[in-house]
Amino acid sequence: MAALRYAVIGLGVMGRNHARVIRELDGVTLAAVVDPFASEGDIPGVPVHAEVDAVLGSGIDAAIVAVPTTAHEEVALQLAEAGVHVLVEKPIAADVEQGARMAEAFRSRGLVGAVGHIERFNPALQNLRKRLDAGELGDVYQIATRRQGPFPARIADVGVIKDLATHDIDLTSWLAQSPFRTVHANTSRRSGRPHEDLVAFNGRLDDGIITNHLVNWMSPMKERITVVTGESGAFVADTLSGDLTFYENGTDATEWDAVSAFRGVAEGSVIRYALKKREPLRIEHEAFRDAILHGRPGIVTMDEGLATLAVAEAVMQSAAQEREVVVDRVAGPAESAR
C-alpha cells in the first residue's frame, strides 16, 4: 500500500515537531508544508508553499493544522471540502460555534477529524487509565492537576484556559470516563496581556468525582502533575518525566508517635512503575494514521475536542460571573467514545 501523503499547515514550534515525527513514521510521507513565512529548505527535501490551495491539487491524504487557534476553522473547513483527513492542534477552535462547524464538516463527509490533546498519549497517563479501568484504585473520589510554567512567547491569540487548561479538562474527563457537569473558577491577568494567565478552578463530573485544577503561565518552574485519589490510595502521574507512582492506603498502624504525627496514622507501599516511555507525539500520530487506514479508535475526536472547549468556555464564564456554571453539552455522538 502506498504511503499516506501528509501536509503540515503552519511551521511554528508544534508544526516543526509534527514534521519531524511524520518523517520518522512508517506508512506516511511528508509531501508538503504550508506557511507564508517559511522558506524553501526549512524542512530539507520538502516543498514549501504559502497557501493551502497550493497543496490541495497535489493529492494529499491528510494534514496537520498547526496554525494559530483563530485560523483553525478556516483552514480545517477548506481541507474538509477537499476530502482531506485532519489532525488539528488543540484547542479545536477559538470558540464552540466554530468547533461545532468543524466537527460536523468532518463527520458528514466520513473523514477522520482529530484534535491534538497530546497528554492522552503520555505513557504515564495511558498506563494510569488502564489501571483505573482495571479497578486498581476502586472508587475514584477526586482528580487534581497542576500545570504551571513560564509564559510561552508563541501564544498570543488565547489565554491560559484555552491553551493550557484544555489539556487538564480533556485528560480528567478521559481518565474518569465522565464529562464535566459544573465548574467554578477564578482567573487573573498579571502579565499585561489581554487574556488570563492564571486560573484555578474546581469541577464536578457527571459521576460525582470532584476535580481541582491549578494552571498558569507565571511560574518560574515547570510542573505537569495529575493526582487521582480513590478507595485504595492515590496515583500520581508526572507527564514531564512520564513517571507514574502509586501511594497505597496504609493497612498497618504506625506505633511511633512522632512519625505518625508527620506521615499519618498508617502507611502503605509506594510503587513507581517501570514504564515503556515513548514520545507522546509519535503515539498520537500512530493513532491518527491507524484511524485513517483501518478506522481504529484511539484518536481524540473533534466531538471530544468540542466538549472540552465547551468546558473551557464555562470556566471563563464562571470566572467572569463569579459563580458556579453548569457546562453545556454540545458534542455529537462521538463524545461517548471517551
The CATH superfamily of the largest domain turns out to be Dihydrodipicolinate Reductase, domain 2
Q: Tally the helices: what do you get?
A: 9
Mean pLDDT: 92
What's the number of extended β-strand segments?
A: 17
End-to-end separation: 31 Å
Which structural class should the secondary elements be placed in?
A: alpha/beta
The assigned CATH architecture of the largest domain is 2-Layer Sandwich
CATH topology of the largest domain: Dihydrodipicolinate Reductase, domain 2
Major sheet summary line: 9 strands, mixed
CATH class wording of the largest domain: Alpha Beta
The overall number of domains is 2
Estimated helix fraction: 25-40%
What does this structure look like?
The protein is α/β, with parallel strands linked by helices. The protein folds into two domains: 4-117 and 282-301, 3-Layer(aba) Sandwich (Rossmann fold); 120-276 and 305-337, Dihydrodipicolinate Reductase, domain 2. Helices cover 32% and strands 29% of the residues. It has nine helices and 17 strands. It has helices at 13-24, 53-56, 72-81, 96-108, 123-133, 160-176, 257-263, 280-294, 302-321, and strands spanning 4-9, 28-34, 48-49, 62-65, 85-89, 113-116, 140-150, 180-188, 198-205, 210-216, 218-230, 233-238, 243-248, 252-253, 266-267, 270-272, 325-326. The strands form three sheets. It has a nine-stranded mixed β-sheet. A six-stranded parallel β-sheet has the order 3-2-1-4-5-6, sandwiched between helices. A two-stranded antiparallel sheet has the order 14-15. β11 and β12 form a beta hairpin. α3 packs parallel to α4, α4 (96-108) runs antiparallel to α9 and α6 packs across α9 (302-321). The protein is globular, with a radius of gyration of 21 Å.
